[in-house]
């Protein structure tokens, strides 16, 4: 990616690249002058963007005459001169090099310093970069801002996500000034309070899928367990029992047993917390008491759970579809055909079996179809286009339908195996039976909630009603 | 989903949740004070968001001292006191509890009341909530706004869709004031006129896929008809004729006949209205006369038609790919192999058949590939990134190519069956023949339009030219 | 699509269409009056949008009394009167009809003329429309703007992409005025400088996938070459050698050889430039020297390369999955089964073969799964939601993992064929061997870069450090 940014920078200074280099800048009198320290990728992109929005820009550099190519229309002078000329200074410099700024303290006195810096990893330094900067130049008003934007994002115009600018600082006036500039750039400003919030702002760009951790761990754990379970019951059991080595089945057959199991369990885990929350509210008779943290955390990662479940289902589908081209399967079929012929029995199609297998496939396909639909509607741009009612319809109603189809698919797979003891090797049930527990529970609970009486009181609770509250009018005033 | 919102609220008040709780609020003098009635999810989220944007917030509550957790930095007082202190009051209360506001009429006189309420279903009340509020407090300037936003959307920053704020009211000044606040929140304001528009605004969040209804009904209708048709011709016919029960084929074989048929018909129905519109314009010799409503409605749901067609095609693909693992198919193949062997004939590969089936599959796959491409480009975020010319290129040029591939795929499937009478059971043609009618018509018409002469005059018409207009210069001035 | 716009226009003027027609407009005193020339699709949509935002609108038309339906609340008069009344005039007229504006020169003197026009194709006229307009009415201040928006986009509210408004003009004040209007419409303004930029702005909407050209050409070239190569080695060779016609295999078998090959090569070409760039930086010892243009261009189309590679992989998967339902394959299997039986040998499952084929499939599936994941995360709305670190993690780390899986998949396919000479027909290697070259090279180079020593110095360089620089402190100040 770094190379990516570089390429943009070089692109930026190429005359033919329309979207980047301004073709000359307006010379209006009322233009405000802003100063930028540092002529790196970010400094250049920021300057260019500001120029396009109609600001005048002066860069502060140690080598005003021999620095990297800058956007057209910007001036370059020494840091001191630049600082003098403007009231707002963007500090686009690595923290490691802040120290030299101390020498500029007099020129920077009373100025607004915007700290846009980020670190390579968390907790690299005892204090936030912005706080460090403030300590270096006590006379200036340091504002932390723009650090969540990338040079790339600035160049190509603010996209939906990078349109948010978080800023914090101790001087409200200073923040106001920075906010104005940000708004002119077409960005949305969110004030995060005093400079003590700088650390959090600096940690934003460093986060790596925080909300995916829990679901991922869960998925890996389940996969590992069921893989072990299946290998024991199939490979090891067969080897011990008949001394036959069917280890090769690990690659596809076993994988194709584990993936659907994990997928179904995780899908049902998306809907379990909602059901639990409902019962908790029914039990408490109010919605105004907070849920236990574990439930909160669980509910906040439902989307991730669902998407992981979908990806496992996707793998399951592919693994299923390649079955007939597997060497092993072809061998088996040829063998059975020859055996049938040798036995010389007249072949009879088992209608029930045909019905069962076909419905098994059919239900599975429909379930997967809905699965994919859920996945698509959880794409940001799609869910944004949905009204709240539409979104909840798809995610809850269709979601439960998907869960039902997939569970039913599994039951059809089990069919009559549930009873015949021959399947309980070493007194353990087949894996797919284990995986049916959670979804079954979820659906039973959901059915209970759908009972008119239960449903009614739940709705009342969610609209703000409270069971044992003397003056519940006041509560009722709350908008759900 | 309600649980979802709850979880957010609880998340909101947790100190560790970076993205939500402000870490202290600016104490700038020029901060404006806004008042919020009601401390429910929405009221809290709104307040928090306003605090982050730099406003001062005072909540009005019946129980100022014992109400749900509120965002840091907000004050809470009685409704009366709160109303007094601010000129702009957000009423985040259920309509059922508006009545008590009447008592506050004196304090609310001349204030701007923002009604953000929604109802659980349409036409629950004779008049819109906002109009009801205005009637209760005639002295106040009621503005309907923000009701299309969700508490969730407010917390997580405005996303592309929820960035639109529709407002309406009778006082332009009041609306101006609310618009300013909305803009500061990074939202786009759309004035919908007088308060009489409130009803429509309140119906927005309640709509459930209005533009999908027609296509869905169509899809269901077609599916039902063809399913019946196919079952009659196959299952019933075989049963009556040979007394053989092949009902099990319903699950997969029949489904896999119906889905592609419906898919192809609906795909062609996406392109039929465009063609009709073109001919209508040619016939009228102008583009300035409105189309009949049915055509309008049809053209406005083309995207939905296409997406449904795609989903049916998707199911068709899955149903086709599981064919070889079906018990029935394996049985058939084994039987035929054994029969071949018994017959002891030397096997000869039919080259023509090989060519035909392979091209049949190949064309189908390419068609489906394009299908998927169309689907992807119709994702909001993708189509937004396309220039108008690019979008029309994909949706029309590639769209017709897809239609051609899929139709050709079906013709290859039919091959020589068209002529042999044995396929016309009970004098009815096979279903796939029926489904070929519409696409064939569409493509023939499209070819006509592409004829240079026709194309030329059509282009002229679409650029504003009119056939029999004395002073068509003036018309020509219209920009197409 | 033109029909599409038409439908919208007619929709617009239908009373029942909520989202479009304003239900009465505010009568606030401070409303500003804007003038629009031309009552075509664009003029009407623009006017309506402006009305909704709270402006007063007057249309200038040659036939004020008999022109197409206009948005409610707008007045219509003659061009002259309209021009007089407002200071800002939107010229929504085809360039061909500008000439008549010359007659309005006196009324338009000193006014701001906004040229929103586009042409049907590039370089249709010697000078840009806006420059032509300026030449016609030297007294007016022409500003080029809004031409990248569509009537459709204006009606349905600005979406993420169409939110950018590029404007250019010679008068800064005039541009400021237009910018204010644009901002009120919720659009982001980008000043592109003087009127000489008009041509570029007018070319924006006409571009047709400029960044896709190179990758597409490459894909087509590779496909053509390998198709020819495979056909020669298989069909022609067999025909010449054994006089057997297996041409039918072109449709599926050959296609399914070519697609995966092209896919793998293009995937590796996504990662090659990054590696080259790294080595170039290592060699130069700095990141501040621009890359050669060819490398820049290459790096800027990596995303497109990757998406094309994905689509080829997608086709490969489908072509693979239909194998077992092909007539030819079924014939082959039946034949071999019969042969086996005749030979009357006892069938023995080749465990190694089973292992190999299964792992071959398994690795392929996992690779494809990652492939799809990469594709999904490159959707605008998804990648926007990722932090910079998350995006680079997926696109580089997971990207290389994908490359590894797919390459390994191909090696497993080759297995022991690499050595047996029988596969080198006409002394040429099988196609899949050729396609292994690039990915292997890329991965070896990447491994070199990952060596601690190399990695360390590369990181230093990318943070701004330079090898042989006397005063590198100053350089160090640049923020990467």
Automatic annotation (TrEMBL), chains A, B, C:
Q: What is its main location?
A: membrane
Annotated catalysed reactions: 2 Fe(2+) + NADP(+) + H(+) = 2 Fe(3+) + NADPH; 2 Cu(+) + NADP(+) + H(+) = 2 Cu(2+) + NADPH
Q: Name one Pfam family in it.
A: Ferric_reduct
Query: What residue ranges are annotated as transmembrane?
Result: 214-232, 258-283, 304-325, 360-386, 398-416, 431-454
Give a GO cellular-component term. Answer: endosome membrane
Q: Which UniProt keywords apply?
A: Copper, Endosome, FAD, Flavoprotein, Ion transport, Iron, Iron transport, Membrane, Metal-binding, Oxidoreductase, Transmembrane, Transmembrane helix, Transport
Q: Which organism is it from?
A: Collichthys lucidus
Occurrences of domain Pyrroline-5-carboxylate reductase catalytic N-terminal (ranges) = 35-119
Domain Ferric oxidoreductase spans what residues?
261-394
**What family does the database annotate?**
Belongs to the STEAP family.
Which InterPro entries does the entry mention?
Answer: Fe3_Rdtase_TM_dom, NAD(P)-bd_dom_sf, P5C_Rdtase_cat_N, STEAP_metalloreductase
The protein's topology relative to the membrane is: Multi-pass membrane protein
Q: What is this protein called?
A: Metalloreductase STEAP4
Name its co-factor(s): heme b; FAD
Entry annotated with the keyword Transport: yes
Question: Which BP terms does GO give this entry?
Answer: copper ion import; iron ion transport
Biological classification of the source: Eukaryota, Metazoa, Chordata, Craniata, Vertebrata
Localization per record: Endosome membrane
């Amino acid at each position: 990616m770094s190379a990516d940014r570089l390429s943009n920078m070089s692109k930026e200074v190429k005359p033919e690249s329309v979207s980047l280099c301004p073709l000359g800048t307006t010379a209006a009198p009322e233009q405000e002058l802003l100063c930028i320290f540092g002529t790196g990728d970010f400094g250049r992109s920021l300057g260019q963007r500001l120029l396009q929005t109609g600001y005048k820009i002066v860069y502060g550099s140690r080598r005003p005459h021999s620095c990297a190519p800058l956007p057209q229309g910007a001036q370059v002078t020494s840091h001191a001169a630049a600082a003098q000329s403007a009231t707002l200074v963007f500090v686009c410099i690595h923290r490691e090099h802040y120290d030299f700024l101390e020498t500029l303290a007099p020129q920077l006195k009373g100025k607004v310093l915007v700290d846009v810096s980020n670190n390579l990893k968390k907790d690299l330094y005892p204090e936030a970069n912005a706080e460090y900067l403030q300590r270096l130049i006590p006379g200036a008003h340091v504002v932390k801002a723009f650090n969540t934007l990338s040079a790339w994002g600035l160049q190509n115009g603010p996209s939906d996500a990078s349109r948010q600018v978080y800023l914090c600082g101790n001087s409200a006036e200073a923040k106001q000034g920075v906010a104005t500039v940000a708004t002119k750039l077409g960005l949305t400003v969110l004030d995060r309070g005093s400079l003590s919030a700088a650390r959090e702002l600096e940690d934003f760009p460093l986060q790596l899928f925080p909300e995916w951790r829990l679901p991922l761990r869960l998925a890996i754990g389940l996969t590992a367990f069921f893989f072990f379970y299946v290998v024991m019951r199939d490979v090891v059991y067969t080897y011990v029992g008949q001394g036959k080595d069917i280890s090769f089945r690990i690659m596809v057959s076993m994988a194709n047993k584990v993936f659907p199991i994990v997928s179904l369990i995780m899908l049902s885990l998306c809907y379990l917390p909602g059901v639990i929350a409902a019962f908790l509210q029914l039990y408490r008779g109010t919605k105004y008491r907070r849920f236990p943290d574990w439930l909160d955390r669980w509910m906040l990662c439902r989307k991730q759970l669902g998407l992981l479940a979908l990806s496992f289902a996707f793998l399951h589908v592919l693994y299923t579809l390649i079955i007939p081209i597997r060497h092993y399967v072809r061998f088996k079929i040829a063998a059975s055909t020859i055996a049938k012929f040798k036995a010389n029995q007249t072949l009879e199609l088992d209608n029930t079996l045909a019905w069962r297998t076909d419905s098994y496939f059919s239900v599975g396909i429909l379930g997967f179809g809905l699965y994919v639909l859920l996945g698509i509607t959880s794409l940001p741009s799609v869910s944004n286009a949905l009204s709240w009612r539409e979104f909840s319809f798809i995610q809850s109603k269709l979601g439960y339908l998907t869960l039902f189809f997939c569970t039913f698919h599994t039951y059809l797979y089990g069919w009559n195996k549930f009873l015949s003891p021959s399947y309980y090797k070493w007194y353990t049930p087949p894996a797919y039976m284990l995986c049916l527990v959670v979804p079954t529970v979820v659906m039973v609970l959901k059915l209970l909630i759908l009972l008119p009486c239960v449903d009614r009181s739940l709705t009342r609770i969610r609209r703000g009603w409270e069971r044992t509250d003397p003056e519940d009018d006041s509560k009722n005033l709350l908008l759900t």
